[in-house]
Design brief:
The protein is mainly β. About 10% of the residues lie in helices and about 40% in strands.
Length: about 325
């Protein structure tokens, strides 16, 4: 499914529900990002139709501590969120209005929202960056951001094989951006996040979480079976980097999934906030990989599992 793919999968031993929410405003959670400002807080958003709203969720109790409305944008199909910094070094939330189920939008957008210093219900404005993909329109549900640098990627969601697309570094122009394809990615990818120390990143589909060493495209070092969640779509890292937090569109639970402790030591040093490194052309040369037939088969299996889980959930 990915370059450097390993067929071994790890069980999610120790995975458990951290908390459940009862807030009816969280009707279809599809994106989550660990706050870069507030300890014990993750920002979540609903799927398309949920409006231009971000919710600050307590990662211990699932209590919504604030709702932020982005007043100067529409919400065509918000599908991803990541916490990072802008070119001025301010902590921002990168909100991806990148959903495109028909692969037909002439352009898509990422909005930069300065993360509030105080958690309260309020309206804010965003700086918007409009872009296209050089190889045509794509559906996407994943935005990746280095926590301490203005460096971003969008990962597309396709049935058999998506792609990783870097944004320019630093991100200055607000329109006319064309993103090149950096590397292939798996099928049916619904979210991802870079670890707090910048040494790893994770991508998820409806069944597994794939952990990579380094920044995209990186090297896959493990895949972990995720808990059964009806249409599980959201994933981020726990603050200590030892586990993952996941949520689903048809569930009201925040799950903790531990990262195996016996993974090989990272070959990537922690990110220095002062270093801004643009993706290099030779990043496309990634060893390994598997055949496309396996990729299609894996995507089909994931789709069947998703249908089965959703059907069982609706019957309940």
């Amino acid at each position: 499914m990915f370059a450097g793919f390993s067929t071994s999968a790890r069980a999610n031993d120790g995975a458990h529900v951290v908390c459940r929410w009862t807030d009816q405003r969280l009707s279809e959670v599809s994106g989550i990002a660990l706050s870069g400002v507030h300890v014990g807080v993750a920002w979540v958003h609903n799927d398309s139709g949920g409006g231009p709203y971000l919710y600050a969720m307590d990662t211990t109790t699932c209590f919504v501590r604030a709702r932020v409305r982005i007043s100067n944008i529409g919400a065509r199909d918000i599908e991803g969120i990541a916490a990072g910094v802008d070119a001025s070094g301010r902590h921002v939330l990168w909100v991806g209005d990148v959903g495109d189920n028909r692969d037909s939008w002439p352009s898509v957008r990422i909005h930069a929202v300065v993360e509030p210093a105080i958690l309260k219900n309020e309206s804010v404005t965003a700086r918007t960056y409009q872009f296209t993909y050089r190889d045509g329109p794509h559906n996407a549900e994943t935005v990746l951001a280095v926590p301490s640098k203005p460096q971003l990627w969008v990962v597309t969601k396709q049935l058999a094989e998506g792609g990783i697309y870097p944004l320019p570094v630093p991100l200055l122009s607000q329109s006319g951006l064309q993103l090149p394809r950096l590397a292939p990615a798996g099928g049916l990818l619904t979210d991802g996040a870079i670890s707090p120390d910048g040494t790893k990143y994770v991508l998820r589909d409806y069944v597994w979480a794939y952990v990579f060493d380094g920044l995209p495209p990186g090297r896959q070092i493990t895949r972990i079976t995720l808990p059964q969640q009806p249409q599980g779509e959201a994933i981020t890292w726990a603050a200590d980097g030892r586990g993952l937090l996941t949520a689903g569109e048809r569930d009201n639970a925040l799950w903790f999934v531990p990262i195996p402790t016996d993974l090989p030591a990272s070959s990537s040093p922690p990110i220095s906030p002062s270093a801004i490194v643009a993706p290099t052309p030779n990043a496309l040369s990634v060893g390994g990989g598997i055949g496309k037939a396996f990729t299609v088969a894996a995507a089909a299996i994931a789709a069947l599992v998703l249908v089965g889980l959703s059907t069982r959930w609706l019957r309940r």
